[in-house]
Amino acid sequence: MDFTISAAVEDYRARIADFVEREVLPLEADRASYDAHENIRLDVLEPLRSKARAQGLWCLQLKPENGGAGLGRMGMAVCYEAMNRSIFGPAVFNSAAPDDGNMMVLEAVGTPAQKGRWLKPIVEGKVRSSFVMTEPHPGGGSDPSMMLTAATRKGDRYVIRGRKWFITGAEEAQHFILLARTSDDPRKGLTAFLFDRDQPGWRIDRRIEIMGPEEHGGHCELVFEDLEIPAENVLLGEGDGLKVTQVRLGPARLTHCMRWLGLSKRCVEIARTYAAERFAFGERLAKRESIQMMLGDLAMKIEIGRLLVMKAAWELDRGGFARKEVSMAKVHVANLLHQAADTAIQINGARGYSKDTVLEWIYRYARQARLVDGADEVHKMVLNRNLNAEGSDFWRWPVAQD
Fold this sequence. Notes:
Elements: H1 7-28, H2 42-54, H3 72-83, H4 89-92, H5 99-109, H6 112-123, E1 129-132, E2 150-154, E3 157-168, E4 175-181, E5 190-196, E6 202-207, E7 219-230, E8 234-235, H7 241-277, E9 279-280, E10 283-284, H8 289-317, H9 323-348, H10 350-353, H11 359-366, H12 376-390
Parallel strand pairs: 1-4
Antiparallel strand pairs: 2-3, 3-7, 4-5, 5-8, 6-7, 9-10
């Protein structure tokens, strides 16, 4: 693959970096900008979103006909990394989960009518959305075949009964994508549905408190008690739920990695600045070999992560599924983010452990990275499955077609 980026992508990256520096970081440094769940307050966020939209930095991941810039996955890798120099960045540019993944799957598989009804308002920033899949034990988590929430067909409608939990963004969402069981077929037993917050027959049972800071809308437990969904709000078709999850979750996992690389670089930035300023035992921290080794190790691992992400993005852009590429990137970058935050805190000492920097915020946020969208162990099992199936071809180079 060619590692050069286009002049257009570089222009977006530079303008995003400038916007984050001028508009976002000053607000991030002000504790008054935070809501009760340690994210940017919505009344502070909306003016920033308006500025980003006015400067053409809005929803870059989507195709132009859907309100985006058509960057493709490789362009997104460059720009998302720049956006997430700030912990507030993704929300500002409408590239934050779960809206990001929901917009991309609606763009990919929604009908024109569904795009107008469900996608357009998210793109315009008028509503937020949520992806409703994970269930409490003994229901489906990383293994969707265990899903218990049921959708029963009654005429031109489906009736939904069941329970979901750790549903990101649910408390603020207006539009939802729901996975439910419509049959016991192992491959065609799940169906994806669209529903609106105002429809009766469901409720939020609780907002689940978590260790780290939260996305807008938190992580909620949902109960479905005869929610009725018209058949026209099925995504793809009955029994195509697994296909919908594959279309959504692969790219969404990769966009997490793109954003986490930005946060990892921010950790190094804070650590390097402090090490260059702080004197101890007669010399700057930056002059100490132990500090140099810590930062050099992180620099190398960040670059490895960028290469893994870019290879997966390249594979997606050329029409592949990039399953093993995404799994490798997900495991590496999730662990990298945790190491980057931990190392930066260690270099900053008590300052890093305090709320004087965003390092402790990133550290608590980072622990979930090894769990969300598939735990490390699940992705490693996927990689071993590929290794068993492909043998030495696991590492094959793609060959150009003459």
